[in-house]
Amino acid sequence: MDTFIQLVVDGLSTGSIYAALALAIVLVNQSTGLINFAQGGMAVLSAYIAFAFTQLGAPVLLAIVIAVVISFVYGGLIERFLIRRFEGGDPDTAVVVTIGLLTLITGICGWVWGFNNRQFPSLFPLDTVNILGAVVSVRSLGTFLAIVAIMIVMQLLFRGTKLGLALRAVAVNPNSAALSGLPVGRLLMVGWGLAAALGAVAGSLVAPQLTLTPGMLDSALVYALAAVIIGGLNSPAGAVVAAWAIGILENLAAVYVPFIGYDLKIAVPFILVFVVLFLRPQGLFGRKVVVRV
Question: Which end of the chain is more exposed for a tag (fewer CB within 10 A), N or C?
Fold first, then answer.
């Protein structure tokens, strides 16, 4: 039983890394209607910005706050001067642009800071606590609680605020939103800015656990996309729950399913994606999109 609990706790810790990135992907999709494959790179760039300020002597929390503000600005600028040129056209083109943006940002991070591993200072103590026989680091517990808080804030933003409703309206039908008097261009910039700011928080929470490198979130991005598909593109809570489920199930499968083991546990999220897409294409917590023709 102790082994089972430890696997579940470790799975929640790993799943929180996927969830941090998945939330930013959902945020972009909710506010612009696009899937941003560059989200991982943007989060890494924001983490490097925070790291640079810690090297200048700023406290970790202050460095993260500064990185969040800078990330909000450059996220809005990316939408205004790059993504906007492709919005309203073929969605596949916009997806390719975000993939190219990921490559560009990764290269910039490597050029400026190098490709060596760097130790990002943790916002939380490095102590451990015992929960039901499982050893849990305070850093992992803090990351888990931070993800829960962000998920709740996002749910409240999109369900109960005028800004959230306006962002959703622009993502669903920008033309109708413009006719209703909404500043579509400004809202799209805000959506990308918020996603970049959330990426700054995600990158700063994850970097101490993975060590800071330009490709730090490359593999996590794959799991995050799987979590978004399983949980639903329009459900922040669904993406987080799915990310935690992926982290737990891949750990349990590695230990308790002999033919999977640690070598094939990466297949677990893709099996889940296949099953969910077959049974419920909109995701477990997603809503069906009805299009009039």
Answer: C
How many other β-carbons are positioned within 10 Å of the β-carbon of residue 116?
10
d(CA 17, CA 223): 9
Q: What is the pLDDT of residues 250-281, one digit of tens each?
A: 888 888 887 777 777 788 888 888 888 888 88
Question: Angle at which helices 184-210 and 2-32 pack, to 10 degrees?
Answer: 160
Total domain count for the chain? Answer: 1
Domain assignment present for residue 3? The answer is no
pLDDT tens profile 145-178 = 888 888 888 888 888 788 888 888 887 778 888 8
Plot region of 211 (φ>0 → left; ψ -120 to 50 → alpha; else → beta)? left
- 129, pLDDT greater than 60: yes
Classify residue 245: in a domain, yes or no: no
Conformation bin of residue 289: beta by default, left when phi > 0, alpha when psi is -120 to 50: beta
Structure confidence at residue 53 (pLDDT): 95
Q: Are 230 and 16 in contact (CB under 8 A)?
A: no
**Domain-embedded: residue 237:** no
Of the CA atoms within 13 Å of residue 61, those in its CB half-sphere come to: 2
The β-bridge partners of 134 are 131
187 in any annotated domain: yes
CA separation, residue 178 to residues 19, 167, 170, 281 (Å):
32, 12, 8, 30
- Give me the pLDDT at residue 293, please: 45
What is the per-residue pLDDT across 5-34, written as a single tens digit (0 to 9) for each? Answer: 888 888 888 888 888 888 888 888 887 778
Tell me which residue of 202, 193, 20, 207 sits closest to 113, measured CA to CA.
Answer: 207
CB atoms within 10 A of CB 108: 14
